[in-house]
Amino acid sequence: MNEKNIPLTLQEKLYNELSNQIKSGKYKPGDKIPSEPQLVNTYEISRVTVRNAIQQLVNDGVLIKKHGKGTFVKSAVYTEGFFSGGSFTETCLQMKATPYTHIISIDKEKADEQIHSILSEKNELVTIKRVRYVDDVPSIVEIDYFSNDYSFLLNENIENTSLMKIIIQKKHVIMSNFEDKFTISYANKEFSELLNIPSGTPLLEITQTVSSPDNQVVYINKQYILTSKYVYAVRSYK
User: Are residues 83 and 48 in the same domain?
Assistant: First the structure.
């Protein structure tokens, strides 16, 4: 018998229906799909059939079940490309995602003593705070610290411009050395609001010291990454 002529089971029909609704954008990443009782009533099929179709989509990595909350469309996780040069924008474009950066503030602020010490600056630091979005989902809080030699940045429009390009053009500085330190931190009230997550959510905290070829520190970059949305990748060479 030709397999094309074999009628689909009710489970297969529901599986295809939900798959098509997700692909069409009716249900977007992070959206909750109708409950099992709602699907039973809508499609007039048994609860076992509904449960099996949903489980198949869970097994395929399309849906995710959250105990006590329901079943949701699984959000994509974007992994930083090894050949993107550590660029958030390049990573998103390579993954066919839409990058967006929202500037929270550009001001002079005090930082912790270690950052002041590394930058050899006792006064307030030029501080740029941003939120990075992937496909309209806030994924990273990023803070850059500069000495007062970079006060010109306070008057620059960096909303849609590469910060590195501005520094190179204005200061003629080459940035070639990047030292990363990793730790885990937990979202405070400010970060929970910026990333739309509960307070206390674990975040990957990266402190990156960016230096010139002669080991002069240019700036310090801190990133607080929601790893359920974005994965920071590092490759080492022997």
Answer: no
